[in-house]
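User: Hey, my collaborator sent me this sequence without any context and asked if I could get a structure. I don't really work with proteins. Can you help?
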Amino acid sequence: MAWKGKKMKTKVIKSNKQKIREMTILAMFIAIIAIMGFIPNLGFITIGLISYTIIPIPVLIGGVLLGRKSAIWLGLAFGVVSMIRGATSAGFDYLFIFPWVSVLPRFIFGLVIYDIYRFFLKVIRIRFVALVVSFFILSMIHSLLVLPMLVTAFPIILGNANMGSIVGSEVLAFISDSSSLSASIKLIFGILISNSLIEALLAASIGSIIADRLIAFRLLDTNNMETGEE
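Assistant: No problem. I've predicted the 3D structure and written it out in structure-token form, which is a compact way to encode the shape of the chain:
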């Protein structure tokens, strides 16, 4: 029967052994995220008032290696770790106690990782270059998702004396200066140009190299073509 140029999509049936292996790898990535999140200055490197976040790197690597569903779980793990860490921190990190600041952006981040990578892989056709480009763009998307949500917490902090005492006088003064719409926009763009650009460059350089080697090893080990999850 002719299909007039359309190709049938075949769904890959994974064996129990493959499923167990992927679940084990997923658990390992979640453990890495937790370790990086809770060890001081490992996943969140605090310099001044703002922290540099490199936890997106294992989320990106695990997301492109394991597929869309696993990427979502890794994003959620990142968000939960960030929220727990916020509850035990002061300064700007305390603002991540709010789920819409810590969990929601990371869920969306995990949701788009695999599809954006596959898009650039289809367009560029060179896996390593596709990883570099997609990791850079995804890291910037992560920042664009988090920063506006972070700013939405400013009025809550300013309106609650107990929270204001936790973040500290220096951060509270910074939040007060950035509470207007124009100042908040300048703050977001300022962080994007400085911190977020550095994070994106790290993800594109370090993360893409590791991801490329792991994907190559996985393809060699399974002797299968790279497939996406439906």
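In plain terms: The chain has one domain: 16-221. You can pass these tokens on to your collaborator as they are.
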